[in-house]
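Handout, section B. The chain below has 403 residues.
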Amino acid sequence: MSTMALAVDKGGIELSPNLLSGVSLPAAVVHESPLTHNLAWMQRFAEAHGAYLAPHGKTTMTPALFHRQIAAGAWGITLATAPQCRAAFAHGIKRLLMANQLVGQANMAIVATLLEEGAEFFCVVDHPENVRQLGQFFASRGLTLSVLIEVGVEGGRCGCRHQAQIIALANAIADEPALALVGLEGYEGVVHGDDPESGIRRYAEYLVQVAVELERAGLFSVANPIVTASGSAWYDLIAEAFHSAPLQQGRFTPVLRPGCYVVHDHGLYHEAQAAVMARRPDLKQGLEPALEVFAQVQSLPEPGLAIIALGKRDIGHDQLPLALRRYRESGTQGQQLSVAGWEVTKIMDQHTFVRLPEEAQDVAVGDIVSFGASHPCLTFDKWRQLLLVDEQLTVRETMNTCF
C-alpha cells in the first residue's frame, strides 16, 4: 500500500496535495461530502425511531471517524474485541460496547484496565461458564463488569438459543457480585432462510419480548436496560421493532449498531440500502458511497487489456472492484474520462485485470482510475491511513487507522 507524499512549495511550506498530482497511488480515499451526509442521515434515522446509535467501529477502526460519529450524536462506539476497545479508548472514546463475548484472562485484563482508567464498557455473555470466569476475574480486581445476554438463533452464531437458557443465565449473573446484567444484545444478520425479512422481523420482536419479560421479572440490575441489535443491512427492521411501545416508555435504552453506513459501498450494502428504500419509501435520499481506492493504469500489454496497479492488498475483493471514473495524471476533477464498458475480470495481490471495450482507444499508462468495492470493512483493514478529500479531490485530512 502507498502513503501520501505532500507537495511542498518553493518556500518549503507543505501544500494540500490533490489526488491527481502529488499523492502516491494507490490510495484509499473518503469523500467528504457523502461522508457528512451519511453521518447526519443515520443519526436522524435512529433518533426518528426513538433509538440511540452505537456505530460498529470495527468497520473502519479509524478514530477520526469515531469522533465524527460521536460529534454527530452517537451514544457510543461498538467494537468486536478487547484490543479494539483499548485502541478506541486510547483515542478518546469513553463508552465502548463490545458486541462479543469477553473470553480469556489476557482479554479480561485489558478490559479491567480500561474500567480502572474510566471507560464505560459493556460486553455480552451466552454461557454460564463464561459468566463464572468473568465473575471470578473481575471480583479479584475489585471491579464490576456490565454484561448483556446475547440472544441467538438456531443454526446461527453465538447467543442463547432458548428463553429458558436466557432466564437461567440471568440468574447465574445475579449470583456473581462482580457482574451486572444491564441488557440484551442480538444480531439479526445470522437469520437466513427463504424469507429472511419475515425471520428478522420475528427475531426482533422476540428480542423485545424477552427484554420486557426480564425487566418485569426484575432480572436487570439497572433502571433502563439496553436492548441492542442491527447490522448495516436490516437496520430498518430492527428500528421498527425497537420503536414499538414497550421500548418507548422510558423503561429501556434501544441501541442500533450499523457500521458500514459511514462510508457505505458500491456492492453488498448498496444492494441492501436499495432494499431498505423499497421497504421504506418515506425515507429520503438514502446513504451515499464515500469510500474509493484510486490507482493508476500500469500496463497496456495487449489490445483490450489494462493492468491496474491495484490488488488484494489494497481493496476488498469478496466482489470484484468496480471502475467508477478515470482522469489524466495532473488533470482536474472536472476532466473525467470514460470507463464505460470496463470490466474487472481478475484481481491478484497487486494487479487488477480490466477488459476494455473496443472503443476505449484513449486509455494511457498513468491514467488514474477510482474504484468502488463491496463491504468496506475489507478495504479499511488494508490501510494504515486514508485520505479525506473534497469535491475537487484535494486532500483535506489524513485519517489513521488502528487495526
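Note. The chain has two domains: 7-28+287-400, 32-279. Compare this with the example in section A.
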